[in-house]
Amino acid sequence: MSTAKMKQLIAVVLARDADKVTKELLRQGVLHFIKVRELGGVWESGLEAAKPPFSEDTVGALRKRIESFLSLAGRTPREEGKNLDIGRLVPVNPDEADKILDKLGAELQEIREKQRYLQQEILRLEDMKRQLNMFGEVDSNLITRSKYSFLNIQTGRVPQSRVETLTMGLKEIPSVLLPFNRVDGQINMLLITMKRDNSRVNSVLEKVEWEDVELSSEMKGSKPEIIKNIDKKLGSMQEEQKKLETRSKDVVANNLEMLEVMWANLRMNELYSRTQSY
User: Fold this and answer.
1) How far apart, in whole angstroms, are the C-alpha atoms of residue 249 and residue 73?
2) What's the CA angle centered on 196, arms 157 and 143, to 5 degrees?
3) Where are the alpha helices (DSSP H) in 94-152?
4) Terminal-to-terminal C-alpha distance of the chain
5) Residues 161-183: tens digit of each pLDDT
6) Closest CA to 36 of 68, 13, 19
7) Distance between CA atoms of 191 and 143, rounded to whole angstroms?
8) How far apart are CA 121 and CA 230, in angstroms?
9) For 175-205, b where at least 16 C-beta lie within 10 A, e where not — what string?
10) What was the pLDDT predicted at 28?
11) φ, ψ for residue 190, nearest 5 deg
12) Which residues touch 59 (CB under 8 Å, ≥6 apart)?
């Protein structure tokens, strides 16, 4: 781009006209500002600097917060044309803008926390699957060998009336729970968890009156079913991760118009503040 010939202009504006002049300068968009202090003579001591009603840094920080939200929807704000219509400029209330963005941020943070938790659970189940694949078939030797791994493999029984409570209690813990035969109102079960979760698991088992039993012949050879169970849980969690990712984009999409209007007004106020600071 070639350099255009420019003329230096000096303008002295009455305080009562500062708002109108500032907006018109922004509307024209053809001036390059220099600081008053860069001028020689007595200009600097003879003029009083304008005092914008808010900090440019404060407004700029709010604008950048909005940009981070818009990026989730793949949107990049633009300053051309109607996007920055000085006629639509209204004063900014930083506190009110903060409240709006805080509310939106809290909703997105809640989704991110769920995503983080799910990812941790996925990694644990994948670790469990890797550990199981290192072993042979499910038998008494497997339970013995599990003592030297990260897995805790237990066989036991619980009253049939407590099975649902047990299932719900283990829902938030990476685990495999396989029911087998029923004997006198009791359900025999094979439970596989990570040793790091022992305290949480033991708390659940105490509530359902879990009773340890020897590995039965029926439980032997159940490794394919165990792996299938893990894969099913992994698939369910990965699907939930996709839903959460879509949900975070939907949150921004549902507030897109409001965010873009806020961004444009903040950007204009930022330029307004900068112009008045010269």
Assistant:
1) 5
2) 45
3) 94-133, 140-145
4) 26
5) 999 999 999 888 888 888 887 77
6) 13
7) 11
8) 11
9) bbbbeeeeeeebbbbbbbbbeebeebbeebb
10) 64
11) -110, 125
12) 92, 94, 266, 269, 270, 273
Cβ proximity of 138 and 226 under 8 Å: yes
| Token pair for 58 | 């404060």
3-state secondary structure of 91: coil
User: Over the stretch 89-102, which tens digit does the pLDDT of each residue have?
Assistant: 788 888 999 999 99
Q: What are the beta bridge partners of residue 87?
A: none
Tokens of 107: 């909703």
pTM greater than 0.85: no
The Cα diameter of the chain in Å comes to 103
Phi and psi torsions of 237, nearest 5°: -70, -40
d(CA 246, CA 74): 12
pLDDT digits (tens, 9 = 90+) for 29-81: 655 555 544 445 555 555 555 565 667 788 889 999 999 999 888 888 776 44
Structure confidence by residue, pLDDT tens digits, 118-153: 998 898 888 888 877 766 566 555 555 555 467 888
Instruction: State residue 36's pLDDT score.
Output: 45
DSSP 144-194: HHGGGSSEEEEEEEEEGGGHHHHHHHTTTS-EEEEEEEEETTEEEEEEEEE
Rounded Cα distance, 203 and 257, in Å: 49
pLDDT at 202: 92
